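[Meeting: bench + compute handoff]

Bench side (C.D.) handed over the final construct sequence. Compute side (W.E.) agreed to return the predicted structure before the next meeting so the bench team could plan truncations. Sequence as handed over:
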Amino acid sequence: MYRTHHCGELRVSDVGKTVTLSGWVQKARDLGGMTFVDLRDRYGITQLVFNMETNEGLCKRARELGREFVIQIVGAVAERSNKNNKIETGDIEILVDELNVLNAAKLPPFTIEDDTDGGDELRMKYRYLDIRRRPVRNNLVLRHKLAFEVRRYMDTQGFIEVETPVLIKSTPEGARDFIVPSRMNQGQFYALPQSPQVFKQLLMVGGMDRYFQIVKCFRDEDLRADRQPEFTQIDCEMSFVEQEDIINTFEGLTKHLFKEVRKIELGGDFPRMSYADAITYYGSDKPDIRFDMRFVELTNDVKGNNFSVLDNAEYVVGIAAPESSEYTRKQLDQLTEFVKKPQIGATGLIYIKVNTDGTCKSSVDKYYTPDDLARIAKKMNAKSGDLILILAGNKAKTQSAMCELRLEMGSQLGLRDKNIFAPLWVVDFPLLEWDEDSKRFFAMHHPFTSPKIEDFELLKSDPANVRANAYDLVINGVEIGGGSIRIHNDELQQQMFDVLGFTREEAESQFGFLMNAFKYGAPPHGGVAFGFDRLVSMFAGLDSIRDVIAFPKNNAGKDVMIDSPSFIDKKQLDELGIGIVK
């Protein structure tokens, strides 16, 4: 056999045993009469000892070993005199009697260590080497544990895992589809699923009752740290349930995962917040509630002082950053530049320092008296030592900009600890959102989301104010999951299509199979989908999902390791009946 033990296994209790180990050479150290080699596998590192006095030939061979050589050794376990408490096997070493080089290796393009010298693109090009590094390997092990615990919990709750198709029909809502040409049906195309939405609803019509799936989904959209063109969801659906049933079930799943994987108890019920309050107080439908700094609207409190920036503003809002009045002019200028970034879009920043003696100092002292500033500070509920930051302008843009500024201040003040978790359910979303360019409504979630029962009548008379029977789970400002109660009768579904601007023919063409299924007795049902990659990255303490995916794409959607996407042969195109337009 290639090994009797792995490289993270041996302890002082194994001293005296003869063992066989196999793995990769992490590094070698030649100390004259002795050569030390660190041998690595998935489980850890074991130190090997080659002695020039006892076996000169073997020691000379050890000195020829390069980084990442694959070797096998046989030797005796001995207790180390200079123990290494940084590795689990640091109390022992192997006195090597036999050495077999299983495969020599080229010098890797970056050091395969925890703190590597390889940049993102280089590491992605040689991802198979990057996976040998402990941080990436640990992330993949963490991913496995989370998936295992998801399946374990869902099984105890009576859910059945069902696979749904990957080649499906393209639909017009949501992000752009990835499309796949059909050779057998030339001129026609499959789409890769953005989610298994219609299939899980059809499973409910089929009486499956409780379905889940850890499933690949695909969206052709611009990428960022928490997006990949292909990603993984924990996709779930339940029959004969209301919103409360789903929230309770998946709050239970979340608590189970934190307890079993992170050893953290999330006690009590998760708080809930309406979408309207989330936007009003945090400027976001996924607020980070690890810290306060809630928005306070000042629109009517700052007008009438001949300061046109605020007098003419549609909306003025402030936050009080705790214990920040000592911010220097340089730091305040940096905050101003931060909010002026194109992706944030504010035109400027106003500050009021609430000094420790209770007086106020502001960037707008010219327009506001000390009493005016004190009144604003009182409205903000600011305390001595706080720093009030104010933005003004278009309401939606200013709320969004203040949201970013609040998060930035939270980071600067150390209030966004990655080891603290603050879950929150956001509920009562708008059902629809108006697109000014196309002059039509779009579904905020998807066209199968049910309105609140009490808002049914508004669907005809005032669709903009209809609330969705929808809910998102947010943790630390990250949307971990979202779902809704579904429309389960064809009449209401057709009414929804009418509001979305589908003709009867378009609705029939796109979703006729679902509408027809509803006619055969669809139960009340609803579900939720968790972003599995985001959940793993949060558990790993990372901001990006890239390092919790075995073989990710870069920000251009390319796999630089296998050079994909790539051009294909003209013969393949001809078989598909496809021509490339330059």
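W.E. noted at the follow-up: The two ends are 57 Å apart (CA to CA). C.D. will use this when planning the next construct.
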